[in-house]
Amino acid sequence: MNNASIRVRLTLWYGSALALILLLFAVALYLVMSRALREQVDASLNEAAAVAIRTLGEHRFGPFLIFEDLSQDFPEIALLDKFFQIFGPAGQVTIQSSNIQSREIPLSQSAFRASLDGESTFESVQFKKGVPLRLLSVPIRQGEQLVNILRVGTSLQPTDRMLRRLLVGLYIASPVALLVSLLGGWFLAGRALRPVHAITQAARRIAAGDWSQRILTPHSNDEIGQLASTFNDMIGRLEVSFKQIRQFSADASHELRTPLTITKGETELALRRPRQSEDYRAVLESNLEEIDRMSRIVDELLFLSRADLGEIKLKMFPVQLDDLVREIQQQALVLGMDRHVQAVLTAVEPVLIHGDDLRLRELLLNLVDNAVKYSYEGQTVELALVVEGSHAKIMVRDHGIGIAPENHARVFDRFYRTDEARAHGAKGTGLGLAICKWIVEVHHGTIELDSTVHRGSCFTVFLPLIPARA
Amino acid sequence: MRILVVEDEPKVASFIRRALEEESYAVDVCTDGTGGLNWAQAVDYDLIILDLMLPGLPGVEVLRRARAAGVKAPVMILTARSEVDQRVKGLDAGADDYLTKPFAIEELLARARALLRRAGGAPTGILQVDDVVLNPVTREVTRDGQRLEFTTKEYALMEYLMRNAGRVLTRSMIAEHVWDLDFDTFTNVIDVYISYLRNKIDKGRERSLIQTIRGSGYMMRSDG
Predict the structure, then answer these.
(1) Which CATH superfamily is domain B2-120 in?
(2) Angstroms from A382 CA to nearest CA on chain B
(3) Closest partner residue to B10 among A264, A420, A425, by Cβ?
(4) Which residue on chain A is closest to B20 by alpha carbon?
(5) CATH class held by domain B127-220
(6) What residues of chain A have any CB closer than 8 angstroms to a CB in chain B?
(7) Which of B15, B20, B78 to probe the A interface (max A CBs under 10 A)?
């Protein structure tokens, strides 16, 4: 049963419930029918008795009634589907209608006793080789004296026959109804489960790697429809993150492959034949540069993946941001020396924020390093720290290659580097700004970019101030 | 043999260039797609090595446009190992071979030789004119079984002449296939190098294999 499909189980449950209902219904119907028929028979007997009593009149009753006289006066008596018997006060048969013929249908003890008490009695009897009978005995009294007992009887055969026919009908109709509704149930269950089947098929194709698969949702908003659209939503989200992961790993492997290609190629080339020692030196220096690049990529990748997993613990303390900015400016001067890029502080205000000193330093250093790298030679990089409302506002502005507006949103993506940045020759990893964004966000701040191609970029970071004590 | 290398990563381009130059090919390097396409159309290269990840115009597009413009030179594409679809697109766009990064430098050189051989129509790669035999793999040249020593440039010129034996080669054709972009066509460097070759292979022999075609250029022929 556990292995059977939902369709089979639904149909079987449905079938069992229906069979039970049918059975109860049949039994009830039979009981009600037989009772109704019995009551009908009894009512007709009562009526016949009443008619007979009224017709015969009370004066005619007595211990000695002669049937011939009766039947002469009331010929219709013989034509009724009922028979009559009139017993004397001692219970002996006085006269009886001719349709009884010679059969003996004596008065029962209980009926006789009830008659003595003045009560009518209904009885069902079945004599040997005879038909089932329903009998009504009515006492006829004059004053307190029992004069006669009138008995009216009728055959139960027609009623029994009708009940039997009903039973046969139920025997035949119930299984047919059951079968038809089982088939209907099977069909309906199949119909209801068709979207489930579609979901299974789609899931199977998706498992095989076809992420474009979606389930055709029925227009209805029923349970299955909801399941299908929930499933589609889930697949959509999975597809997006799957693509992101694939893009990310493709980018990561591309970024690592370039330094690998260089170190491998240069080393192999150097080893092809004996060379001057300065040639070897040049190769080793170049390789060291590439190895540094790879280790930087690996470090930054590791940092980001740990950040994603929430494994990086921040040490949040009050940080004097103006001191930090001054320190960074000093480092920027060193960074800019080779390219004659001057780092200047255009504004600085005392600012205290709540943050992780190490991460904030990394954030600012990354921004300043970028600014220096992508500046044109001999230009200045401007640093500013001001308070704006409830936030500290840090600006790092360069005068360099800039970023085209269509790339503004993407520069914070992992491994995203503009073609201009690649062509610029500076050895970036494409991860710096992704890390900056993460650091800003864990400090509940925002980072914005304003940039014009060939004019320069300005990165603005807003960090919340420590709320002043009331 | 003149080769165009289109590669945006300067260090990669640099060592490919040095490796090819050591094999006496003339090499031009271009670091972006648009420039690569222009050079491929402007110069009759013997081989183009094309990176598919390029700033500006993507490599596949460079290839498609170059083929559409009638560039016949064999093309070897450089791709990352994971980029199967890129490789397929590249081959479909008209590339003759591919190499995945990071690659072994010897493999790059061997594939370059194979492509040049196929383009030259010599199945084994060993070139022969009369009793002069040139093996591009070992870069050995012999005449009558006797080994001859050449400088890199001399060898390049020799190989070009032998690959095109029986054809008249003008000075500008020679300049285009044996020298790179820095070559100044107004000097008589080609004539000087031809005389070096003659000194090495024809000197003291009855038949001169390198013939001067007056007014047009030079030709290498066995029935001198």
Answers:
(1) Response regulator (3.40.50.2300)
(2) 30
(3) A425
(4) A269
(5) mainly alpha
(6) 250, 253-254, 257-258, 260-262, 264-266, 268-269, 272-273, 286, 290, 419-420, 422-423, 425
(7) B15
B contact set with A (CB within 8 A): 8-12, 15-16, 18-19, 22, 31-32, 53, 55-56, 80-83, 101-106
Number of separate domains in chain A = 3
Query: Does pLDDT of A1 surpass 50?
Result: no
Based on the domain organization, do A208 and A348 belong to the same domain?
A: no
Task: Compute chain B's Rg from CA coordinates.
Answer: 18
Examine the pLDDT at A114 and tell me if it is beyond 90: no
The shortest C-alpha distance from A334 to chain B (Å) reads 26
Edge-to-edge strands, sheet with A391-397: A342-348, A380-388, A391-397, A456-464, A446-452
Give me the CATH number covering residue A244. 1.10.287.130
Beta carbons of B12 and A265 less than 8 Å apart: yes
Segment A116-124 mean pLDDT: 85
Which helix (H) or strand (E) segment holds residue A229: the answer is helix A223-271
Residues of B in contact with A254 (CB under 8 A): 53, 80
Compute the distance between CA of residue A381 and CA of residue A365 in angstroms, rounded to an integer.
13
Q: How far apart are the first and last CA of chain B?
A: 25
Per-residue pLDDT of A75-106, as tens digits, reads 555 556 777 788 877 777 777 766 666 567 77
Residues spanned by the domain of A67? 1-97+107-213
ipTM for the assembly? 0.73
**How does strand B75-80 pair with strand B47-51?**
parallel
Question: Which of A290, A308, A326 corresponds to the end of one domain?
Answer: A308
The CA distance from B19 to A237, in Å, is 48
Closest Cα in chain A to B12 = A262
Dihedral sign for Cα atoms in the order B45, B47, B49, B54: positive
